[in-house]
Amino acid sequence: MTVGSPVKLIIWFMVPMFLGNVFQQFYNIADSIIAGQFLGVNALAAIGSTGSLMFMVTGWISGITSGFAILAAQWFGARRYDTMRHYVAMSVYLTTGITVVMTVGLLIANKTILRLMNTPEELMYDVSSYMAVIYAGLAVTAAYNALAAVLRALGDSRSPLYFLIISAGINIFLDIVFIVWFHMGVVGCGYATVIAQGVSALLCLLYIRRKFEILHLRRDDFKISGESMKKLLNLGIPMGLQFSITAIGTIIVQGAVNIYGAFYIAGFAAGAKIQNLIACIYMSFGATIATYVGQNWGAGRLERVKKGVRYTQIMILISSAVLMALIFFFGKYMVLMFVSSSEKGVIDAAVTYFMAVFWCYPFLGSIFTYRNALQGMGFGLVPMLGGVFELAARAAVVAAVAGRASYFGVCLSDPAAWLAALIPLVPYYMYKMKKVGQSLEYKVE
């Protein structure tokens, strides 16, 4: 990504990233669609109410592994492959340790977390069983995210996409098998998800072993370095916290929605899952600009960094206009993927959510542009601070309206969060560009 047209490179890298993110969303969406169509509204509500928890857990894992891969991208851009392998090896240690701690802790705290979220008692068994399976399978989730992040750091965004397509198909097939044929209920969706993710992780590993000799780790690469681990954590933890802090905000919102009952829970869940699909294009631009900036920053090409960020922001604004029109005119019909047309209460709740958030898509997309650009340069603190602003805005809106105002008021917490997140991001990016442009002296740390 250090030579050639920035626009072409960004689009070429982003498209498979986008398709990959869409297929990754299918894990939970397929669970919800099949559960809603075959098991009913309560099953849809049960799986749907776990969306914020899933986002917190998988977002943390995705964030830290993406953060770890930034150093791999920078040293790859600098053509220092021995150093790159060393950081990959250190990230293996860190990812493994973090995953073990998460798995044990979340399994122990499973029902306590759900009660804090005001999960209705009639949904508790299904929700807790489903999440227990997801927690138990976090090792394969972490493995896929770590391997895919390293591939993307080296400029290969297509192979993870192909593996996700395969595993998404497996997930849908197993959902049908476990629910329709074996009558396993909601927990069957959890098993389908974990097995499918395990397949994608295995395919990534086999592909790396066969195609990327520069990623073949040696004994010397695994020599433990506290300094190297510290540098990885300085990038990984802020990125993981950025997702987790945002997820905590969505958990607060979900807890407020749960007060309104199963129909609102199901409608909010359907709307949020469609919203997550919409956000895939922003996430993909963000991941692309992080890799693009990381490689060009490592190669010392500041002007290419500026151009890449500017062109990405323009493309996000154009795509936002298209997505806003799509949701405004067709959002209602998308909800029919999850429930039949007779479930008017669920459909109305989803449409209410759409009307609360669709106008703010340009701001949502801008978050990913500036946050990931700063992360690609190695600056993790301010992007995390953007997440803190998101959390504060969501919490403030929920505190003001939950239980005392309409469901629409709770839905407005998302636009408030997106606007708040930009408050530290844009000024800090402009400040850094100006400062580095004046000195023209920086190095990969």
From TrEMBL:
Q: Which UniProt keywords apply?
A: Cell membrane, Membrane, Transmembrane, Transmembrane helix, Transport
Q: How does it sit in the membrane?
A: Multi-pass membrane protein
List the transmembrane segments.
6-23, 53-76, 88-109, 129-154, 161-184, 190-208, 232-254, 274-293, 314-339, 351-370, 382-403, 415-431
Which coarse location class describes where this protein primarily resides? Answer: membrane
Pfam families named among the record's database cross-references:
MatE
The yes or no answer to whether the keyword Iron is present is no
Q: Which CDD domains is this protein grouped with?
A: MATE_yoeA_like (cd13138)
Give the UniProt subcellular location, in the record's own words: Cell membrane
Look up the domain of life of the source: Bacteria
Stated name of the protein: MATE family efflux transporter
Q: Which organism is it from?
A: Faecalicatena faecalis
